[in-house]
Amino acid sequence: MTTLEALRQRVRSQIMGFTRDQQQMSELAAPMTDTDTTFTLDSTTARNISRGLAEIDDELILVKSLDASTSVVSVLGLTNGRGQNGSVAAAHSTNALVTMSPMVPRVRVTEAINQTILAMFPTIPIFAATEISKLAPVFEYEMPAATKDIWYIVSDTVGPTQVHYPSPRWRYNPMAPTGDFPSGKSIQLLDYVTPGRAIRIVYLVAPTTLSAGTDELATTGFDDRMAEAVVWGACARLVPAYEAARLQQQSIEGTERANLVPASAATKTAAYYEALFQQAIQRERERIMEEVPNYAFWQGG
Length: 301
Known about the structure:
There is one protein chain. By secondary structure, the protein is α+β, with helices and mostly antiparallel strands. It is built from six helices and 13 strands. It has helices at 4-16, 106-119, 227-238, 240-245, 252-260, 265-291; strands at residues 25-27, 38-40, 52-56, 59-67, 72-75, 97-100, 127-133, 140-142, 147-156, 164-166, 170-173, 186-189, 198-205. It is elongated, with a radius of gyration of 26 Å.
């Protein structure tokens, strides 16, 4: 199963390449808490870390100085230097990797992955189902609070046929009065159904996002085969940052590379990734419409 960490690795490999940019790294020689204002590095690689922005796991930290004799790093601004740029101060274990000036911070990659996951819905639906028993005088029934839309409704028939026929006449109410329907969601069933018969309602729910590195893509509600689409979508969101970096020519390396990499190269690459993302989404949409028809034709759609 594809995990968040696996997705992050695939995205970073796509937008960083495999060998072109070698980041300066070290590792923690001792654990640190979420409030520590110093941390100790492996003595053999400590000199790779200098003043600036460092990344440990998913946290970004401002480095003030390194004591070369002890391999102890001081945090700029004390606790104010922890959890920078939208990251969260956290505890880190011994041997956690410390990366100096990360090209693509893990926290930004995670954001792009989750933004992509949320953007895939409702083009790629996530299904849930509930069943109700028809009550003779009742035409409107409460739906779960997580309901975003209705995909289809089928009703049980009387007799031994065991046929569940599509119900063409219904109305979804996403703003139902909470006095009658505490969830604020309801479904109005306008077809005649024999009282006591079961009505199965297949509805849509929004995806959840990923947070821990071990979280699996399947927990979002999407199938694991959507991993490729998530990678393309995340790349499309991250690559444009390289274009903005062209406006900040503060190093000889940056100035020299600007001559080799033409203007708008990043935006063109982002468009390429977006096209791959849309193609993957379209393929999955077509597959779903074949495997899980929504009986729209019963309503004239």
